[in-house]
Amino acid sequence: xxxxxxxxxxxxxxxxxxxxxxxxxxxxxxxxxxxxxxxxxxxxxxxxxxxxxxxxxxxxxxxxxxxxxxxxxxxxxxxxxxxxxxxxxxxxxxxxxxxxxxxxxxxxxxxxxxxxxxxxxxxxxxxxxx
Length: 130
Known about the structure:
alpha+beta; 15% helix; 5-stranded mixed β-sheet
């Protein structure tokens, strides 16, 4: 079962992905392009060129799991960051907003408590227009 929560670290792969890739192909992109360990427990997000399909790859203690979604209309929004060629870190909230089709540029965040050393804002006001 896929259980995603705020304690996971999320990484969005920076380039359009061939959605024919499955477990081995996607974990290869994580290892070779993001330079991360796909079995670390982190969650990796991939979008295709048209941004109408998304895949989420994670390791769940005993093997890989993939969540896949194809939109019948519209596109997923890709957060725009300064240095996003390889990939960008997302917050759990950003991933939920992307999956639900809510514009990341229109989100206003209220001030919240964060523990020392914790980044309370892994969010971007700049997004790629759909």
